[in-house]
Amino acid sequence: MFELTSLHWIFTSFILLIILTMAMRRDTSLICIIGIFLMGYVATGTLNQAVIGIFNSFVYAINELSGTILIISLIVAMSKALLHAGVNEIMVEPFARIIRTPGMAYWIIGLFMMIISFFFWPSPAAALMGAVLLPVSRRVGLPAMGVAVAMNLFGHGIALSGDLVIQGAPKLTAAAAGIPVQEVVNASIPLLIVMGVVTVSAAYWLLKRDMALGKLTVENETVVVSERSEQEDLPVHPSLSAKTKGWIAAMVPILFGLDVAALYAFNLRGSDATALIGGTSIFIMIIISLVAHRNNGIEKTTAYLLEGLKFGITVFGPIIPIAAFFYLGDSGFTSIFGKILPLGSQGLVNDLGLAMAQMVSISPAIGAFTIMIVGIITGLDGSGFSGISLVGSLAKLFSVSIGSGIGTLTALGQIAAIFTGGGTLIPWSVIAAAAICNVSPFELARRNLLPVMIGLFVTTIVAIFLI
Questions:
Q1: Burial letters for 255-287: b for 16+ Cβ neighbours within 10 Å, e otherwise?
Q2: Which of 41, 118, 159, 200 is deepest in the core (most CB within 10 A)?
Q3: pLDDT tens, position by position, 373-408
């Protein structure tokens, strides 16, 4: 294996600095920009290329996040139209009859999110659920942060890291480990149960504690954008009859229900699934604008789009510099600065994980904890999927030394990588749930940190006994 270069150590140093800064509740944008500049200068040796690299890294991050930015903006635009037409009250009424307490809201939202995410992945599921269930949850006393935590951990955590139905993640890890996909799936089930139960229970306990102490309530909760902002010029339309509001309220779930059927029938996944949800949101927003605002419907359509896009830019603005830095840990580095990394490099993040794995002697306990830590490291790029081939390869290597446990080690690395980078601990990867719930992605990632770390520790202990 090649030796780690100065770029690897600079990247590692800035990761630690960013984590420390976030722990101190300070903004990290400037640190990320300095990190990008310094890495660009070391990589290219020229000031002009380092400066150019800052801009190009931002462009790369925006391109990578554009689909998520747009779907969130369109969902918000549709939600604004529903709110101003007075339809949202009718839509949430059936759920209000079921959800009576903050605890019920947390568990019901989480379980619904997990079930939908198993079949269609979490980002479309968050878009589908958030707009309808968030008002209900806040009404019964569960803060928006609690809703975001539930959607995040059950969807981007449990459902995505197991990926038991679509099986995109198990296929990648199984191929790298050289074992059948079903072996990874079977091995992941007990670990996923432990990880899920421990993580969501710990998160719920922390939520209940902070709510009881008055640190987190619906009344004092800090949100990214005020719920009253930009609404005074678009008041609720009083002239819609109850019948009209009723058929609009029925139309929305019917259309999204047809989307769900189409996703299943035409095997639409990932970006295609998100695009279908986004297109339907535009369609609904146009109908509401034309019906509710009549002659002003054309202008109001544009107004709702602008509201949604303003919200998207406001939420994602602080995320772009951080994402730009961490994308340098994967394929973004080559795209921005060219093929400068040493021959055989798998990207800065994967190189660091592989180097760590090769510095330890192997036993069941050391092997399991090393796979877990490598999974976390490879998840730092905010994808979760980019490093799971590496953990699959390491699981194969470790299992040979240990003499057993290839399926368990592979599943453990997969769960650690995706729980970290797939959408619970990295600020820009939690953005779907954070934006829909209108909370800070940084605060959401901080709140997820302790439950996820506890879950990974307990799950790793269980994995040691299963090896």
A1: ebeebbeebeeeebeeeebbebbbebbbebbbb
A2: 159
A3: 888 887 876 666 766 777 887 788 788 777 788 899
